[in-house]
Amino acid sequence: MKGLFSALLVPFDEQGEIIEQGLREIVRHNVDIQGIDGLYVNGSSGENFMLSTEQKKQIFKIVSEENQGKVKLIAQVGSINLTEAIELGKYATELGYDSLSAVTPFYYKFTFEEIKDYYETIIKETGNNMIIYAIPALTGVSMSMAQFDELFQNEKIIGVKYTDGNFFLLERLRKEYPTKLIYSGFDEMLIYGAVSGVDGAIGSTYNVNGKRAKQIWDLCQEGKVAEAYEVQHVTNDLIEKVLDLGLYQTLKEILNVKGIQAGTVKRPMSSLDPAKKAEVKQLVEDFQL
Fold first, then answer.
1. Of 254, 259, 260, the residue nearest 283 (C-alpha)
2. Alpha-carbon distance 236 to 276, whole Å?
3. Per the count of CB atoms within 10 A, which of 3, 15, 107, 176 is most buried?
């Protein structure tokens, strides 16, 4: 379960329906071309929180079929509807996903005891392993070391997707829990996670920039940090431009330019401004994507 996982993009048509063939192509591109070690399915990058339960199941099934056991699969099933999270967790477990993941429940001001019960209930009902998805910038939930301590007492909670800029807490977690999986969640800070001893990383830009991310990762494992920094600089030049143009819209257009049916984003997100398509095409050339 170590290494780099793409936070899988999902292609939608103008009506918001999943483009099945396009999703299969994106899976193949990640596995065969980008050379990633696994797929993180139905996370933020898959526009998960705008999807129906049936659409989420459809994605889990298509990805499992297309992957054919080649790389590890993590199913993000988190929802503030616990019943849905359990249903999705059971479904992904039946499909053979290697682990579940769940974002901390958001929007309402849940207590830590409620959050803990949420994770323990999903685990109990599904029997699968769990990777906590900690992303305080979007959920408003910042967990302390003491709270991670409580959660990690459950042997089924095998790790955390750590999308947080608190590197002091990251260091404390790594020291205290050497056997738990810690995945870095910020693509632009991959090198910092790698030198801090994380077990891997999960990111949206790996769908198009996975080979460069693997370079950063491998160089850090070899102790060649100065060389890794040079690759991170190039990566961050790309990320800066992608964010300026629109994250998911641009990543999908990069894939479209490469002949992969990546479709568009799901409303209420706005489609890429047609005037920006030439800029995206130039990105593909400039960064050799």
1. 254
2. 20
3. 3
Prediction pTM value: 0.98
Which amino acid is residue 43, in one-letter code? G
Helical residues (DSSP H) of 12-144, grouped into ranges: 20-28, 53-67, 82-94, 112-126, 136-139
pLDDT of 137: 87
* Cα gap 256→252, rounded to integer Å: 6
* Arithmetic mean of pLDDT, 123-134: 97
What residue spans define the domains of the chain? 3-286
Residues annotated as part of the active site: 133, 161
Out of 3.40.630.10, 3.30.70.2570, 3.20.20.70, 3.30.1340.30, which CATH number does the structure's domain 3-286 have?
3.20.20.70
Q: What is the separation, in whole angstroms, between the first and last Cα of the chain?
A: 26
3-state secondary structure (DSSP) of residue 161: strand
